[in-house]
Design brief:
Length: about 425
């Protein structure tokens, strides 16, 4: 799961670095401005961070505060960053080389370089050591993002009831692609508007001629306005109305909805789903696995699976041979049955063999990382997984909503739990707030 905050995280930091003309000079007498757990923040680190923060604010067209405030804000960002890096080191989290190269290349392309080599030459020509500095910074960002994902995701709890409740909301219905066709009437004016609204509601329940209803009940200080809102997404309808429309059955009229501009009533004429059904091919599959071991050499394992395959071809019972010989204890107890298997669940070699074995046929022996197999597809079907897809989508949306809140909470905890000593009192935001 990635949030907009995380997507901006790498972009902002690396772009600011690339815009910096040169790296700070690390003098021998560089001062320590803060201690964070087992690490220190140097004055040169702070100077670089101030430059980056100022550039980011200017890029976002946000006001740049006075220098001493800018320094306090930059130092606080460095402290929070270093507190996270301390946890990265503690849990030995590292960015893999492939992801790191891809991230650096993306920054290179944003800055007009089409290869890492060209980008390195461009940076180091302007300031020696810039490329290594940037690459290390991006590696830290990737490692921190991995840490954040692991920690924050473990804090997010979404129940089945949360999912059901969300799917019933206008936002959930809109996310599913549902549209509604409604008639909308608003009653406003004199003190007896509530009484007129009740009469309008009763007539609307029996009659869809909203123009006639408006004409009939407008007068004596009461105005009745109506509209056929056509077929539209729930997100295009005011929230007060959308919340009342979601639970309605087709042909049903809502209760009176009292808001500041009058009393509203709506009638649902049609509910239409624009979603595509999620039909997934499934394979009812059973297999026999022979694994090499200390007592079974790879050659013997291959010989055993060939022998079993020949016996199956000769008509021996698959379930009996699976129960007798298969090293997959879970399926062996059930005659080798794996039940209904969805695509993407098995390793690629197994899935490829499963998809290309005709129903009722015995596959040729094939090898995966687990050993040697033979399989049989006893049946196939197209399973409607729409509900499962909807629930996964709902969990993703709810998780995204919770992620930023949990992330902010975890960052505050990380900052508060870290040992921090600020050497220069003028840089301490708490003492100067």
């Amino acid at each position: 799961m990635k949030t907009e905050q995380l997507k901006r995280f790498l972009k902002a930091s690396t772009l600011a670095l690339c815009m910096t003309a040169a790296l700070p000079a690390f003098a021998a007498n560089d001062q320590i401005v803060a201690v964070v757990d087992n690490s220190v923040i140097l004055k040169s680190d702070l100077a670089q961070s101030v430059v980056e923060l100022k550039q980011q604010l200017e890029m976002q067209k946000r006001p740049v505060p006075p220098q001493h405030i800018l320094e306090q804000q930059a130092l606080e960002q460095l402290i929070v960053r270093q507190a996270q890096l301390e946890q990265v080191k503690r849990y030995n989290i590292k960015a893999d080389e492939k992801s790191l190269n891809e991230a650096v290349l993306k920054v290179a392309q944003q800055n007009g370089a089409n290869s890492l080599e060209t980008f390195q030459q461009k940076l180091d020509k302007s300031a020696p050591g810039s490329y290594a500095f940037l690459r290390n910074r991006i590696a830290e960002d990737l490692a921190m993002n991995r840490l954040r994902q692991q920690v924050v995701m473990s804090r997010i709890q979404i129940s089945d009831q949360d999912v059901d409740n969300f799917l019933k909301t206008p936002q959930g219905q809109a996310a599913l692609g549902n549209q509604v066709h409604i008639l909308h009437v608003r009653v406003s004016g004199a003190e007896n508007a509530a009484q007129v609204a009740q009469q309008v509601k009763a007539e609307l329940a029996q009659n869809n001629d909203i123009q006639a209803i408006s004409k009939k009940y407008t007068g004596n200080g009461v105005t009745v306005q109506s509209a056929d809102m056509g077929l539209r997404n729930l997100t295009d309808i005011p929230a007060e109305l959308a919340a009342r429309i979601t639970p309605l059955d087709v042909g049903q009229t809502s209760e009176l909805i009292e808001v500041r501009d009058g009393i509203h009533v709506v009638k649902l004429l049609e509910r239409k789903s624009t979603e595509q059904r999620a039909l997934v091919p499934q394979y009812q599959t059973r297999h026999i696995l022979i694994q090499p071991s200390e007592v079974v050499s790879p050659e013997n394992a291959k010989h055993m699976i060939d022998s079993i395959h020949n016996r199956l071809k000769a008509g021996e019972d698959f379930a009996t041979l699976a129960a007798t010989f298969s090293n997959d204890a879970g399926s062996a107890r059930d005659g080798g049955s794996l039940g209904w298997v969805n695509p993407g669940v098995m390793v690629p070699e197994f899935e490829n063999q499963m998809k290309n074995t005709a129903k009722g046929e015995i596959s040729a022996p094939f090898q995966t990382q687990f050993g040697w197999h033979v399989l049989q597809v006893t049946d196939t079907r197209q399973q409607d997984m729409t509900r499962e897809y909807q629930e996964r989508m709902a969990r993703q949306i709810l998780g995204e909503r919770q992620f930023d809140t949990e992330l902010d909470s975890w960052l505050r905890e990380t900052r508060n739990n870290a040992f921090v000593e600020i050497k220069d009192p003028s840089l301490d935001r708490k003492k100067n707030s």
